[in-house]
Specification:
mainly alpha; YggX-like; 2 strands; 47% helix; 9% strand; iron
Length: 91
């Protein structure tokens, strides 16, 4: 049975995550306030953010940058600044 939460990112009720995917207090907040759909959108952005900025997950400074971008994206409604990425032109 799916868990319905009020998604902070989508600003509506949506299916919640099945379990806590991120550690600590931020992870608890994500589990309680972020939907599967919003998390999926973040995962796509995170991949682009890591690749375009050539970040290394083993580097604590890089992990901090990723976490800050995640918080801004999920909870503060800010777009993730992805250097070097140009969105495709709309037809």
């Amino acid at each position: 049975m799916s868990r319905i939460i009020f998604c902070h990112y989508l600003k509506k009720d949506a299916e919640g995550l099945d379990f806590q995917l991120y550690p600590g207090e931020i992870g608890k907040r994500i589990y309680n306030e972020i939907s599967k759909q919003a998390w999926s959108e973040w995962m796509k952005k995170q991949t682009m953010f890591i690749n375009e900025n050539k970040l290394n997950m083993m580097n604590p400074e890089h992990r901090k940058q990723i976490e800050e971008a995640m918080i801004k994206f999920l909870f503060e409604g800010e777009a993730v600044d992805i250097h070097g990425y140009t969105p495709p032109k709309q037809l």
